[in-house]
Amino acid sequence: MSKSNIRAAWRSRRETAGFTIFELMIAVAIVAILAAMAFPSYREFTQRMNVSNNTNQLVGALNTARSEAVKRGRQVAVIANGGDWSTGWEIVAGKATALGTVTPPVSPGATSAACMAYMDLDGVTPLCPRFDGPLPDRYTLLAKGAGAGASDTQIVFGGTGALVGATSYDFSVCLPSQNADSAQSRMVRVDQSGIITTYRDTASSLAGTCG
């Protein structure tokens, strides 16, 4: 091969190798545009997952409280920590007295340590089997009980698994306020018999629409 042919082949190889700065800038711009288009969908997906996780956590607590009430044969409540459901909740059973009666459930204190230390009259039987902390930042949980004896800060199950003091109870599991959307929020309804049902929309929730 002549020297001129060698130089031409080397020049051609250099010209076709890699990307030019202009081509690289175009590629980066395309990636940025695609990322900007995908971000809102990813954010919405993450928020829906958080709402679902919050709902499942609440439903798990309600089912645990109901089964504990049946197993213990006494009232068991799910109580909002410090009166605010968004800061979490605890499951608390009624406490036996020296007279052989059982007092209604009351919060031993809105901390995990207080929950763990709360014992029955015998000093060994735990009365607070579960404590759940706050929801993720900016997510909220609203609650409303129906009936003359209902409390908006606690829901109580009796020894048969039915509600005590309320004819029904609604929870609204809400998105952060800046993305408020009742259709993307979740409603949890507990009927008088204690049956728990979840719904995709909070439009009919007594607790509020999350709007």
Question: What does the model show?
Answer:
By secondary structure, this protein is an alpha+beta fold. It has one domain (52-199): minor pseudopilin epsh fold (3-Layer(bab) Sandwich), CATH 3.55.40.10. It is built from 3 helices and 8 strands, in the order H-H-E-E-H-E-E-E-E-E-E. The chain has helices spanning 3-16, 21-72, 112-117; strands at residues 76-80, 89-93, 130-132, 140-146, 154-157, 168-174, 186-191, 196-199. The strands form 2 sheets. It has a 4-stranded antiparallel beta sheet with strand order 3-2-1-5. A hairpin with an 8-residue loop joins strand 1 and strand 2 (89-93). The longest helix has 52 residues, at 21-72. The protein is elongated, with a radius of gyration of 29 Å. The N and C termini lie far apart (78 Å).
Which short descriptors sum up this protein?
single chain; minor pseudopilin epsh fold; 4-stranded antiparallel sheet; about 35% helix
Radius of gyration based on Cα positions: 29 Å
Low-confidence stretches: none
Domains, number = 1
Output the CATH topology.
minor pseudopilin epsh fold
Tell me the quaternary state.
single chain
Q: How many β-strand runs? A: 8
Strand order of the largest sheet: 3-2-1-5
CATH architecture: 3-Layer(bab) Sandwich
Percent helix: 25-40%
Q: Strand-and-helix sequence, N→C?
A: HHEEHEEEEEE
Mean pLDDT score = 88
Strand content: 15-25%
What distance separates the N and C termini?
A: 78 Å
- Please identify the structural class as seen in this structure: alpha+beta
Q: What top-tier CATH class fits best?
A: Alpha Beta
CATH homologous superfamily classification: minor pseudopilin epsh domain
Overall shape? elongated
